[in-house]
Amino acid sequence: MIDTAEVLIVGAGPAGLLLTGELRRAGVETVVLERHPRRPGFCRGFNLNARALDLLARRGLADRFVAEGWPVPHAAFTGLPVTLGLAETHTDHPYSLGIPQTRVEEVLEAHALDLGAEIRRGHELRTLEQDSESVLATVTTGDREYRVRAAYLVGCDGGRSTVRKQAGIDFPGTEATRFSLLGDVELAEPDSLPFGFTAGPGGKVFVIPRPGYVRIITEDGQPPADKDTPVTLDLLQTAVDDALGRHVELRAARWLTRFGDATRQAAEYVRGRILLAGDAAHIHPPAGAIGVNVALDDAFNLGWKLAATVRGTAPAHLLGSYHAERHAAGAHVLANTRAQVLLGNADERLAPLVDLLTRVARHPAGNRAFAETITGLDTRYAMHPDTEHPWIGRLAPNLSLATGTGETDLATLLTPGHAVLLDLTGGSDVGEAAAGWSDRVTLMKASCPARPELRAVLVRPDGHIAWLRTGDHDHLDGLSQALLHWHGPAAG
Ligand SMILES: Cc1cc2nc3c(=O)[nH]c(=O)nc-3n(C[C@H](O)[C@H](O)[C@H](O)COP(=O)(O)OP(=O)(O)OC[C@H]3O[C@@H](n4cnc5c(N)ncnc54)[C@H](O)[C@@H]3O)c2cc1C
Question: Which residue's CA is minimally distant from atom 7 of ligand 1?
Answer without folding.
Answer: 45
